[in-house]
Design a protein that fits this description.
Elements lengths: L10 E2 L18 H10 L6 H9 L16 E4 L2 E3 L2 H15 L6 E5 L5 H10 L15 E6 L2 H14 L1 H5 L3 E5 L12 E6 L8 H5 L1 E11 L6 E8 L11 E9 L10
Parallel strand pairs: 1-10, 4-5, 4-7, 5-6, 7-8
Antiparallel strand pairs: 2-3, 8-9, 9-10
Helix pairs in contact: 2-3, 2-4
């Protein structure tokens, strides 16, 4: 079961029918076909999400069947999420970062780097006459607990999205996802690509007011729920009432690991 702390939270239904129910059948033969199928299924709704997912080719981030709408193993007992989950996460992030001229985002558990690159494309002006969101000065920080995945993310981004690292839009580093990245906070959006067994308070505290945390919560191998958590008030100490909790849909993720000494 989810932690008893949940009982004190107020949950809100998603604003639209959960798009995940129309997923798993959006496979394509190319990145463009995959994205078009996700849009036809109304999993992708925003032109911004459609644009960045067309620009970032999944074939650079997974070795086999890149355009299947399924998770894939990337080593270290970790997976890259299915494309429909990446699309869903980006759809949840866009409304929060559109409020900022210079959005700052954090990708926790960057894995092989696909979502990190997609987030970077949202705030970069390299492939656009102007950035899709903000004024071109936005930043994306990515952390992973596995050194091999940190290097994999960098190598994958350098294949066709190298400008994101070269111009400083994206920074990738080793880190404990539970602790976030206080030096770069506050964030307009934080995405967590693994399931936390309790609500990650340190990450929540690193949001700016109006910022959102997209995070699966629940035990490894048990019932997990994807949450959109918005910071609605600022306090130097953690208070439940400073956050709104939106329970979205049931998911299954690998566990969010703590850093190791």
């Amino acid at each position: 079961t989810l932690p008893s702390l949940v009982a004190s939270y107020q949950h809100y239904p998603p604003p639209q029918d959960p798009p995940i129910m129309r997923a798993w059948s959006c496979h394509g033969r190319s990145q463009r076909e995959l994205v078009n199928n996700l849009a036809t299924a109304q999993i992708i709704r925003s032109p911004i999400v459609k644009k960045v997912m067309t620009l970032v080719d999944r074939a650079n981030y997974v070795n086999q069947r890149p355009y299947d709408d399924t998770p894939q193993s990337i080593g270290w007992s970790q997976t890259i999420s299915a494309p429909h989950m990446h699309a869903h996460a980006l759809e949840l992030i866009v409304p929060a970062i559109e409020k900022s001229q210079s959005p700052t985002m954090l990708d926790v558990g960057c894995g092989s780097g696909y979502l990190t690159a997609a987030m970077g494309r949202m705030v970069s002006d390299h492939h656009n006459k102007e950035p899709l969101v903000g004024d071109g000065s936005g930043k994306v920080y990515a952390v992973d607990v596995f050194p091999g995945l940190v290097e994999m993310t960098k190598e994958n981004i350098m294949k066709q999205d190298a400008d994101l690292i070269q111009d400083g839009t994206v920074t990738v580093q080793l880190g404990d996802g539970w602790k976030g990245l206080p030096s770069a906070a506050p964030f307009d959006a934080i995405h967590v690509g693994a399931a936390a067994d309790n609500f990650p308070k340190q990450l929540m505290m690193q949001l700016r007011v109006g910022g959102v945390l997209i995070c699966p919560v629940g035990p490894d191998g048990g019932a997990q729920v994807l949450y959109r958590i918005e910071k609605v008030a600022d306090n130097p100490e953690f208070h439940n009432e400073d956050f709104s909790f939106h329970e979205l849909l049931g998911v299954r993720y690998v566990p969010l690991l703590h850093g190791r000494s």
